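Summarise this fold before class:
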Amino acid sequence: MDAITATAQTWLTDFFDEETKREVRNLIKKDPEELKERFYKNLEFGTGGMRGIMGVGTNRINKYTLGKNTQGLSNYLKKTHPGKELKVVIAYDCRHNSDTLSKTVSEVFSANGIQVYLFSELRTTPELSFAVRHLNCHVGIVLTASHNPPEYNGYKVYWGDGGQIVPPQDGEIINEINAISFEDINFEANYRLIQQIDKDVDEVFFKASVKNGSFGAAGKDNFKIVFTSLHGTSITAIPEVLRRAGYLNVTIIEEQAKPDGAFPTVESPNPEEPEALSLAIKKAEEIGADMVVGTDPDSDRLGIAVRNLDGEMELLNGNQTMVLMTKFLLDQYKEKGFKGNEFIATTIVSTPMMEQMAKVYGVEFKTALTGFKWIGKMIKDFPESHFIGGGEESFGYMVGDFVRDKDAVTSTLLACEIAADAKAKGSSFFEELIDCYEQFGFYREKLISLTKKGISGAEEIKQMLKDFKENPVESVQGSKVLWIEDYNTSVAKNVSTGEEKTIDLPKSNVLIYETEDGTRIAARPSGTEPKVKFYISTNTQLGDAADYKSVNSQLDAKINGIMAELNL
């Protein structure tokens, strides 16, 4: 008997329910390859917590793997908060089984004597992050797989500051989980400790979102928005927040308004994918709307389309929206007068334009590993500093620190404020973006994401990254590589001089090449999906807005050349 079959047979004891045991027996008898996929490893925490395909097995999301996580987390809370009355808040999204899995998680917490606040229906991830501090909880949990395909679900853990868990808590919690067996899970719920929450928390969150995302924009009556929740949770928050902020001309894509974990009208519920917003963009063209906004299932990412210089709807990328949102916030702070402790933040694979902007405004710039938990950690680590705003290239943004994770609810309102105000002044969101290019340099980025599923896919990703490191790129489109940043070794090396600098960030499987002309190419595995990602950033100067189209074409051609050169 091999080790995988032996592991699977441990799921045939009386502790496991009959349906689970029946499926495991069937896999052992009839489908050894699928058995291998399900039991060859344990699911691990990545940049966004634990995510995986739903089903039976140690490498799947199910009541036992999440129950074990919850039992380990309960044990950890008791160790780190001895004698305290522990509290946790739990939310879930639109995905299949999210409601039942959240019930299981709440039962395990309650069985361990922990007070549970459970949202009565699906809610957004930013509201969960907000609720942790609002309810003075020690931990928050949201059942979501963000923008992953329908077969996925996940389990994200938030600490008492409202941010996702970071070192050392994540490692310590994992150690607690690994120290127990499935039979150690206490499923005997104490229902007296489970309290449902809903409208009272909604009300406080909506008010906070409007307060942090509103800036007295003009022209709201003359500004048309098309909104789609892509079958996700944002339908519970964004329309109401926009209404309260004075945006009454909002058209909702009804075919995508009903929460549905099958995501029947899209190939992927990911606003990074142009196809996901195709229905909304079509509607915007029909009614002459100014802006399209679409969000992912748990409403932490947003995609925006606006009218370009030719009056056509154009989908912007996460770097573009992040840059303009940050500039707008900086302008608001500058008008009131900087206090000298402000900072903006982004990640190592996002546009370098953010750093250039910080220099121009004279505010501090901080950079983090990918994953919004690291930006949340900055706020906790530097309480004397004031976080203005920041984001990452993967369509996430955070306005201030009242929510400690990317927040598509408040960011949607902020984007509408920028666009409505610009239109009222004879400009547009797109023209304001071009103005950023003139001021801070014209940066153009592209993400190449390659999916590699299963055991063989994981090995293929590992080999691709190994090759990328061991066969270093020497030049890119004729520009010599100047720096190689290896986040696995925490060393940045100047290829020309041999100079080495220590990278003052946690170790991570990321490699970045930077050339003499400022081109940057980064490679990393996804922390939440079976993907390897390559990030390309190019830049030049834009002397005049009238030259935007020609310079943009030049940068696009350069990116295409880089992709061909690297066989991406």
